[in-house]
Design a protein that fits this description.
Structural class: alpha/beta
Low-confidence stretches: none
Helix content: 25-40%
Order of helices and strands: EEEHEHEEEHEHEHEHHEEEHHHE
Number of strands: 14
Mean pLDDT: 96
Strand order of the largest sheet: 5-4-1-8-9-10-11-12-13-14
Bound molecules: adenosine-5'-triphosphate, magnesium ion
Shape: globular
Number of helices: 10
Length: 308
Amino acid sequence: MISTICMNPSFDKTVDVDSLKTGQVNRIKNVRMDLGGKGINVAVVARRLGLAVQCIGIMGKDGSAELSDLMDREELEHHFMEIPGHVRTNTKIYSRDGQGVTELNEPGTVVSEENLQAFFQLAKEKTKDSDIVVLTGSLPPGCPEGTYCELMKVLDGKKCILDTEGKELEKGAKGAHPYLIKPNLREMEATLGIELRTMRTIRDAALLFIQLGVEHAVVSMGEMGAMYVSAKKTLFAPALRVETKSTVGAGDAMIGGMLLGYEKEKDMARAFRYGIAAGAASVMTEGTQLMLRSDFERLLDQVKIQEV
Ligand SMILES: Nc1ncnc2c1ncn2[C@@H]1O[C@H](COP(=O)(O)OP(=O)(O)OP(=O)(O)O)[C@@H](O)[C@H]1O
Ligand SMILES: [Mg+2]
């Protein structure tokens, strides 16, 4: 069983307008409500790929029934602790005239120290039978710096996949030695405070995390592809050429793909290609619709891995 952690879930609301005008009344042409939160996204992708997975998280009481209902519709096993407050809504305004997407993200429900400790215990108990735990997404307000690090320490002995950035990534890598990290290039640059322009500098940056005790690092680079780094080897895979509809959640799909790869191959380097295929499959679907298994299966054979 795989567990994903989602401490700041959301409703993702996508609205279409002909042309977004700020400071004026805008008429909405179409509205869509999806599940949001990276921990939920990874779990949904993993489930669609046929893995046994559950999502463990925290959510505000107001809206919890609707959020649970959306997870049930995905047939996703979930265990969420309810706290006072409401489930946040992240709004994406899609302007049909080519202006792009404007996002308005709420911070989320405030978590107290007491809530946090209770959640850690819930996570520990519910992950008893899990080999792998995925920690991803923003933390809700109220969480101190190093919350993911503390949670990984509580989950002592689990293989943790950490997808975050900045201090959270740095502290987590140093203090709890996750099994895998998956920053994108921008997150890697922001965390280290340096520009990474060449393959060599990207590999060296990933190796810094390996030296801190991380076992595997995947640096994703959107349409450029991704790099896999461990103490033993460095791999690069160019992104697959597919028709791009929306790149939202490509990294989440990539993790879902690597989870399947790891289950099949029992080796993270060999699981990397599954991540590349899943990332590409995810950009072929509109908006926040994640990924179709059929696209993933068709793309898997097309992935070309190069040893660096
Ligand atoms: N336009 C694209 N075409 C083909 N493959 C893509 C494209 N964008 C992303 N991918 C694949 O998906 C992987 C992950 O994408 P990306 O680097 O954008 O993740 P991310 O920034 O973490 O995304 P998010 O956090 O929004 O889920 C890439 O390494 C690449 O293999
Ligand atoms: Mg990401």
